[in-house]
Design goal:
InterPro entries: Asp_de-COase-like_dom_sf, MoPterin_dinucl-bd_dom, Mopterin_OxRdtase, Mopterin_OxRdtase_4Fe-4S_dom, Prok_molybdopt-oxidoreductase. This is Molybdopterin-dependent oxidoreductase. Keywords: 4Fe-4S, Iron, Iron-sulfur, Metal-binding, Oxidoreductase. One of its GO terms (molecular function) is metal ion binding. Helix content is about 30%, strand content about 15%. It is α/β, with parallel strands linked by helices and about 750 residues long. Among the domains are: about 155-345 and about 585-605, 3-Layer(aba) Sandwich (Dimethylsulfoxide Reductase, domain 2); about 615-745, Barwin-like endoglucanases (Beta Barrel), CATH 2.40.40. A seven-stranded mixed β-sheet has the order 7-6-19-18-17-8-9, covered by helices on one side. A six-stranded mixed β-sheet has the order 24-26-25-28-23-27. The protein is globular and about 70 Å long. The chain binds ligand MGD (2 copies), iron/sulfur cluster and molybdenum atom (MO). Iron/sulfur cluster binds near residues 22 and 61.
Amino acid sequence: MTSAADQTTTTHDGERTALRTCPLCEATCGLEITLRPDDAGTERVVRIRGDREDVFSKGFICPKGTTLGRLHDDPDRLRTPLVRDASGQLVEATWGDAWREVDARLARFVEQHGREALGIYLGNPNAHNLGSMLYNRHLVRGLGTRAVFSASTVDQRPKEVSSGRMFGAVSIPVPDVDRTDMLVVLGANPLASNGSLATAPDWPGRLRSLVERGGELVVIDPRRTETAREATEWLAIRPGADAHLLAAIAQVLASESLVDLGRLAEHVAGLDEALAAVADLTPEAVAPVTGLDPDVVRSLARRLAAAPAAAVYGRMGTSTQAFGTVASWLVDLVNVLTGNLDRPGGAMFARPAAGSANTRGEPGRGRGLAIHRRHSRVRQLPETLGELPVAVLAEEIDTPGEGQLRGLITVAGNPVLSTPNSERLDAALAGLDLMIAVDIYLNETTRHADVVLPVPSALQKSHYDVALYGLALRNVANWSEPVLPLDPGQPDEWEVLAKLALIAQGAGADADPAVVDDLAWSSMASHAPDDVVAAIDATGRRGPARLLDLMLRTGPYGISLDDLVAAPHGIDLGALEPRIPEVLRTPSGRIELAPEPILEDLARLRATLDRASDPERMLLIGRRDLRSNNSWMHNVEVLVKGKPRCTLHVHPEDARRLGLVDGGEVEVTSAVGKVTIPAEVTDDIRPGVVSAPHGWGHDLPGVRLGVAGGRPGTNSNVLTDDGAVDAVTGNAVLNGIPVELAPAGAPAV
Ligand SMILES: Nc1nc2c(c(=O)[nH]1)N[C@H]1C(S)=C(S)[C@@H](COP(=O)(O)OP(=O)(O)OC[C@H]3O[C@@H](n4cnc5c(=O)[nH]c(N)nc54)[C@H](O)[C@@H]3O)O[C@H]1N2
Ligand SMILES: Nc1nc2c(c(=O)[nH]1)N[C@H]1C(S)=C(S)[C@@H](COP(=O)(O)OP(=O)(O)OC[C@H]3O[C@@H](n4cnc5c(=O)[nH]c(N)nc54)[C@H](O)[C@@H]3O)O[C@H]1N2
Ligand code: SF4
Ligand SMILES: [Mo]
């Protein structure tokens, strides 16, 4: 029996399969989940595999996707709110008591310190969560704070700002991997990460097919990554030098008359300024910084210009460095200069079915992106997209004075492991007057909370990737119903967020989250045609489903949520198509090739050119593993068993020089911290560079992560420096951290 409405097939013995999009990373794989009732009649996940009929993923799955059942069943996953009692212990509480605590503590806090003293941190899983995508804004408004922080400023903010300034509406072009002849990947390792700001399942298959059809795959990375191993060419750049390299590529294109904008010529502004800005940044001039042979760089520029279709794609590694915004801008500039922006096989814009600012309003023109409208209190780092850089969170808490942060709400975030100089932040959180966490675990961050509000597991929530489809390599839409019911008394995640918003507004502990939902609905509905509103009203839907239905029906394809319910494997809306000029939302109606705040930062870049590279100064970079997901999936036994993965990769030459041995503990010291971590000696890394993964370090007191605690690993963000940021966005520098290495236990020199 198949019922479209619950996207489920049931067999005679009570076993059923449900379909759901995986919410764990950006690849949006379709999952086929088999469930069977246990002896007590409770349904359990017995198997998860890739949905072969999913219109996008076609059966692809990674090891993490198979663990949603284990995450759901994890005994450490919180099912009851926790409240700090008079003795300082976090104890289980009923929902009623937890809300009363939240109400009392928030009211007292606001009375004592005012709303300016309250901050909020929104972590990465929010971007994979429809409820958060639709209701977090109401929470922020309800709190009445401007101290908003998120994981985006330890990640992609430089790309959002460069694209926002160039195209408006934060439209980010994605590499058209399936149709390209040449893909240049900088600072991304999609074979481990499964792609980022470029949503597609099965990167391994897509990249292999590029190489098999005779295409070029160039990977630029200080590490010979899993992706670099598949490449036709690996360039081991020095960390932090992507802006220099890309500027040199643009310089070669200009000086060798290889610039050919094609169809885009009439849609750009600032071409001459952009080229003038990089005119002195020749491959020779930047070589001491990049560590790359000028001839190799020239050849790369020429091949990019000559390829029938080519795409440059930069990610994490290019964002989380000192010139992250300049590098991100140059990626798109090079794509424009070679005529590859907005053409098949180049870098293109998705046209998502719902929720994109670039499918709303007047096509081809808009307000652009305003940034730097205010600055942080202590260090004067700039606002972008309504947020302050999370690199200033600790100092905003631990520096006394007018406007000091004294309270924090975290939603799906673990900044104690994920943000730079984590020991400082850890200490700062311990000193707060109020902290409330909305999370599924008692972990390194949430252990500081006075109230922890748990949310349902992924399998208990509906799903639609409203953020990620705007970055997809193919236009698709897929809706998932919850696979399992909510636990008795457990509110849905959006209800927790909405209720928190109401309590913060003084509505009291009994406030009804439906009030926020109805307000959200009426404000959206006021802009929609009457017949659409009436049709959705007639469905009786509430919550995220009602809002999404409106976004879909008023979106570019005019599909409805019922259409998606009837298509449990998703709807394929076709390959990406050229969208310029219609996609643009800049005031000029053109692609702004020379955005002022970004060009200004080239002066700072130039100042690095004469800095002689010091071979003795080791630089630390990050690393992702297919079986990890930032900091929060180390409590799943099948993902962490086996060979330890939290190791420091060291080149054999460096190991020899520094007296480090494979498997031996290394003491790593940076400007802000010190850790010990086992060495893994490998020539898959550029000499002078060492690499450690982030998200480990689960041995802090008060953490309730039984499995992760058994293999705690080392927190690499003890070493990253909250003082080091990208100037344009304040985004943290997480790669290229100067460190000193010594065998652990060796006498200090
Ligand atoms: N398995 C797994 N998947 C994930 C995640 C995870 O933790 N685990 N996290 C998810 C998240 S939140 C994100 S944002 C994405 C990120 O996805 P990606 O952007 O693909 O991130 P990484 O795999 O960290 O790849 C970054 C690469 O940059 C390289 N690098 C470091 N410094 C530099 C530099 O200065 N220049 C250049 N050119 N390269 C440099 C590193 O060696 C690394 O190979 O992955 C997502 N997917
Ligand atoms: N050194 C270094 N540091 C890095 C990076 C790096 O490459 N190197 N990568 C950076 C990047 S790209 C990112 S995105 C950040 C991530 O930074 P964060 O978002 O702060 O960290 P996560 O580990 O993703 O933590 C997610 C939190 O959400 C909780 N959670 C999981 N699912 C849900 C849910 O459905 N609802 C709720 N409410 N909570 C949930 C988890 O228990 C966990 O506490 O880390 C950054 N930090
Ligand atoms: S690649 Fe990402 S979306 Fe696909 S199964 Fe793995 S974690 Fe889930
Ligand atoms: Mo991220």
